[in-house]
Amino acid sequence: MKVAFDVMGSDYGSLPAIAAALQVVNEFKNVNIVLVGDEAQIKGNLQTLLKNKPMPSSLTIKGTTQVITMNDGPLAGIRMTNSSMSQAIQLVKKNEVDGILTSGSTAAYLGTCHFLLGEIKGIKRPAFMPIMPTLIKDQQVVLLDVGANIENTVDDLISFALMAHIYCQTIQSIFRPKIGLLNIGTEENKGPEVTKATYAKLKALTQSNGKLSFLNFHGNIEPRNVLSGEVDIIICDGYSGNIVLKSVEGMASLLFTLIKNGYKKNIFTKFVGLLSLGIFKNIKTTFDYKNTGGAQLIGINGIAFKAHGSSDKKSYYSTLKLLIRAIEQDVTNKITKQIEALS
Amino acid sequence: MKVAFDVMGSDYGSLPAIAAALQVVNEFKNVNIVLVGDEAQIKGNLQTLLKNKPMPSSLTIKGTTQVITMNDGPLAGIRMTNSSMSQAIQLVKKNEVDGILTSGSTAAYLGTCHFLLGEIKGIKRPAFMPIMPTLIKDQQVVLLDVGANIENTVDDLISFALMAHIYCQTIQSIFRPKIGLLNIGTEENKGPEVTKATYAKLKALTQSNGKLSFLNFHGNIEPRNVLSGEVDIIICDGYSGNIVLKSVEGMASLLFTLIKNGYKKNIFTKFVGLLSLGIFKNIKTTFDYKNTGGAQLIGINGIAFKAHGSSDKKSYYSTLKLLIRAIEQDVTNKITKQIEALS
Q1: Same structural domain, B128 and B204
Q2: Does one domain contain both B263 and B197?
Q3: Which of B151, B223, B280 has its CB closest to that of A243?
């Protein structure tokens, strides 16, 4: 297995990305990683990390000369063909790697993936789909779209439900994953027009004898219950999904900060903090978004993941593990074949 | 000072509402509360709460015969003129009370307030405006709209900024409150069309020599930074605002639940939990949305507040305190006069 890792997209330079790649190849003996980016910088960082140890043979470098910045738009990757992002995607296109990870400009990533790889047949709009923890132990929820789109049509949302259904069935072995629709109320007649129309269509599909009647629609899910574990899949337009994702991330990080500060107050609270470590470790491991990692760009012809621009080594490591799992499970081919069989 | 309290709108019956009213009149000697709703039910619950003590003279009952349910639409209050919600709003209209609190159907509340009280001159759309805690001690942020509207125009959003500016200046004594615009990125060119146009207009207004140049626009605020304390005001359309509000509430309650469960595990963790109580009490008091209370329906001709349908005694108590403060500060008249002076 081989993955292309664009290490130039981070807000903090390429060091955390390269450190995560090193950890992954040391842990997963069957994984090869191509570090794509400025060759001198990558070599320098590798030297810092490896000290005098030799470079693992499962790491290779693909030197590139251009860098796409966070402010670059959808055409940047097409214009800058020798950028790390564009070159990494080209490796997928040429079948030289099985998947790709970047943390660079979302707009450029979407534009370049669309242009070079295209969408799965039958899918108009790809979606970013993170896998999120829930209140119920070992149960997760996938939320899509969280930012590949701003607005979505009813058909987009139905196709998100279908892709996530196949994903949960094949990757998570859930026979009939429960699908929820993000909305500001549980009632059928709540929310924007697109959401109301999607509710009606999903309900009709589920109750029909048609091709999509296997979809298991459970109604509206309010933002406060996104992580309650009620459903396996939550579909929403990219703007609302991005708001939910960033709101819960922000609140989690705010509360962890306040708790940490609380324990730091004096010797006594520091001691109690030490005793409480075990309790927090579990919760923090589950709900710290550095551990849950990035999101798959589902619907694209290829296995493409995106990490936060602000990722640290731990985030990159988690996202690389998600990418490896998606490649092992051959997720994109499975979605492609099932959608083909339905049409 | 006299307030009308529609006690029939709760998901859990009128007992928690009446208990909160009792606590408030006992604490605030200048406050009179009219409990509006089913007379027999209110009397029964008062008896339960008061046992053999006499009913405080600052509490009165306004008996009504109809109840608006959570599923009732915008015309319910106009149709059911003897409903507790409609009667409570009529008391404001007749100047018999200084303000109103309900936790009933949002749609019916909006419709009835619009019909009976109307909007402040110059304001097309009222907004729900909760006052939220931030990471910075004793600093709050107002967020509007969080659900009075689904979609909003650029002009709506500018009027939200203006009302919140006057609110923060007069009530919170902030000379030039910082205004943020909720968006999925900090860049000017991010997000939906309405948001981009609002950014451009607010920027132009702030930089102009025009009437609204006192507005202190600070750019986009991402959902993860809503509670960071960067700005005093965050404006957004009602749909996005509702998603943010419910997402952060949901995440806070989820984390508090997990922490509580963690401490319950065994004797040792229970003991550590006891020692940690002091640390959590502060955080929970600040970020438990039962304490921050409901939201003012700002832009309406009158002082109208709304609490969650799922409010308990603590939530109602907090919201009543917010309502009392708004009446003391004469907030609606101040907004009305300043908007008049600008036009």
Answers
A1: yes
A2: yes
A3: B223
- Report chain B's C-alpha Rg in angstroms: 21
Using alpha carbons only, give the angle A222, A226, A232 rounded to the nearest 5 degrees. Answer: 115
In this predicted complex, what is the ipTM? Answer: 0.90
Containing structural domain, residue B200: 124-292
Residue B33: its H or E element: strand B32-37
Task: Give me the CATH number covering residue A42.
Answer: 3.40.718.10
Q: Does A92 lie in the same domain as A117? A: yes
The SS3 of residue A49 is helix
- Identity of the amino acid at B44: G
For residues A192 and A94, membership in a common domain is answered with no
pLDDT by residue (tens digit) across B224-283? 999 999 999 999 999 999 999 999 999 988 888 888 888 888 888 888 888 888 888 878
Same domain, A134 and A109: no
**A248 contacts on B by Cβ (under 8 Å):** 247-248, 250-251
What the block records as the tokens of A257 is 């900060």
Q: Do residues B279 and B316 share a domain?
A: no
Does residue A235 have a pLDDT over 90? yes
Judged by CB atoms closer than 8 Å, whether chains meet at B259 and A275 is answered as: no
Nearest to B252 among A71, A251, A278 (CB): A251
Q: Which runs of consecutive H residues, i.e. helices, occur in A220-297?
A: 238-263, 267-287, 289-292
- Predicted pLDDT at B262: 83
* Chain segment A164-218, per-residue pLDDT in tens: 999 999 888 999 999 999 999 888 888 999 999 999 999 999 888 888 999 999 9
